[in-house]
Write the C-alpha cells for this entry.
Amino acid sequence: MSDSHGQENPIKHPEVQLASNGGYIAGFILTLGLMFTSLELVSRHVWGPFKLTVATSVAAFAAVVLQSYLLFRLDLSRTQRWNTFALIIMIPLFVLIIALTWWMFQSLGARTMIHGMGM
Amino acid sequence: MAMKNSGAGSPGSVVLWDEGYHGHDVISTRTFGFWLYMLSDAMIFATLFAAYAVLASHTAGGPTAQNIVHPWYAFGETVLVFSSVLAFGFSMTALKAASRPGVIGWMLLALVLGAGFLGLEIHEFVGLAMRGIVPARSAFLSSYWALVLTHGLHMALGLIWMLVMMYQVMRYGFSTDVVARLLSLKYFWLFQAVMWVCVFTVIYLHGAI
C-alpha cells in the first residue's frame, strides 16, 4: 500500500500513476506470442505428449509471470510491495489447496468410480 | 480509527468514527482489500484445476478432451481476452491523464471485446449441449463445464461491472470512490487474462495433446 498522498486529487494517486501503455502493449505481445507458440507446438505435434505438456506448462508459467510484472506491475516498489508480498505468501496456500484437492479426488475416484470405463 | 469524545456530554454528542481522519490511504486500503479478495478467488480456480486434473481421465465411456476441444477456436478466444485487457489498460492510462472520454471509450472497446469472447464461449457450449455433451455425462465433463464456465461467469460479471463504472465516470467523474472502484475493476479484469492462460493451456492445449 502506498502513502496517503494523492487523496486530494485521486488521479495523482500512485496506483493510478502506475498505468503504462508500454507495459500493457509489451504484456499483450509477449503473452500472446507465448500462447501462439504453445499452440503451434501442439498443433504440429513436434514432440511426444510428455515433452509437449512440460513445454506448454513452462510457457504458461512464463506468461503468468510476465502478466504479473507488466500488467499488474507487481514489484518491490513502495506502492506495490504489499500486493507482491500478499501474492508470495499465498503461494504455499495454493500448493496446499491444489495438492489436497487432487489427493481428495484421487482417493474418492479410486473408491467410487467404475474402473475400465474410459480410464 | 480515532475516537472523539467531547468530554462529559450526553451520549448523543459522542462521535465514534472520525470521518476526517487522513492518516491512511483510502484508495490503497480499498484496492489492497480487493487484491486479497482476488487472491481468494484464485483459490476457487485452484480447486477446480486440481479436480479437473484428476477427473480428466474419468470419461465413463463418453467423449474425451481430445474429442471436444478445438485449440485454434480457443486461441481466437485468447486473442479476444488479451485484446480486451489491453483496451482496459489503455483506459487506465486515460485515467492517469484524467480523460473521461478516454476512460469510457477504451472501456467500451474492452467491453465489446469481452462480449465477443463470451459470444464464442456460449457458441462453443451450446454446440456441446446440442450434441448431448453435458456435465451429467461424465466426471470429466462435469469438471470441464465447471472450470471453463466459472471463468466465463467471471467475464460476464466483469462486463456488467464495466457498464456500471462507465455510468459512474460519466455521472460522478474521477472522485476518490470512483477511482478506487476503477482500480479494483482493473485487478479483476487483468486477473481474467491470467486465469485464461491457465484455462487455455490446461484444458485446450493439454486436452489436444
In short: Residues 25-208 of chain B form a domain with the Four Helix Bundle (Hemerythrin (Met), subunit A) fold (CATH 1.20.120.80). Chain B has one domain: 25-208. Chain B has six helices and no strands.
